């Protein structure tokens, strides 16, 4: 069965569409996974298209992630109607969970910095309106600090809710916790 993607120009438009609709820079493997939404996408043409888009200034590569440039956004918008609505819908369905995960990652942060007396662990959580939570702890070792950061990143909502529970509990409830 033939796909909707027929040539390298279609692949370039697909890449620009994806990159314009992803909420943060992504690595090549993630971009590849998103772009393989049609049987007409050839991996080697795809890799060449990404390289050409980067070389022409439509995409920029920062270390191991790619982001769309303003030039790429304009070109993608101009050619978006050339992409099949079916392909755009497939991309949108594939992008939704990724964008949700990228948004969560941007809103929940943990940072470890060495200090004279140990390691400072800064934890924070934002929502669409701004900062919800910010906490700085001092850990005696780097391993402890990393463990705190990793556990917070794995379950930020549990920590936030537990802290609120303790802070908002009535006097008697607080004594039992």
Describe this structure in words.
It contains eight helices and six strands, in the order αβααββααβββααα. With 177 residues, it is α+β, with helices and mostly antiparallel strands. Helix 1 crosses helix 3 (43-55). The radius of gyration is 22 Å and the shape is elongated. The model has no long low-confidence stretch (mean pLDDT 92).
| Low-pLDDT regions | none
Q: In total, how many beta strands?
A: 6
- Biggest β-sheet, characterized? 3 strands, antiparallel
Please report the distance between the alpha carbons of the first and last residues: 62 Å
Instruction: Summarize the helix and strand pattern as letters.
Output: HEHHEEHHEEEHHH
Provide the structure class: alpha+beta
Main sheet: strand order: 1-3-2
Give the strand content: 15-25%
> Which word captures the global form?
elongated
Cα radius of gyration in angstroms:
22 Å
Task: Summarize this structure briefly.
The chain is of the alpha+beta class and 177 residues long. The protein has helices spanning 8-21, 28-35, 43-55, 70-79, 85-107, 142-154, 156-168, 171-176, and strands at residues 26-27, 59-62, 65-68, 108-115, 118-127, 130-139. 56% of the residues lie in helices and 21% in strands.
What's the structural blueprint in terms of helices and strands?
Blueprint: H1 8-21, E1 26-27, H2 28-35, H3 43-55, E2 59-62, E3 65-68, H4 70-79, H5 85-107, E4 108-115, E5 118-127, E6 130-139, H6 142-154, H7 156-168, H8 171-176
Antiparallel strand pairs: 1-3, 2-3, 4-5, 5-6
Helix pairs in contact: 1-3, 1-4, 1-5
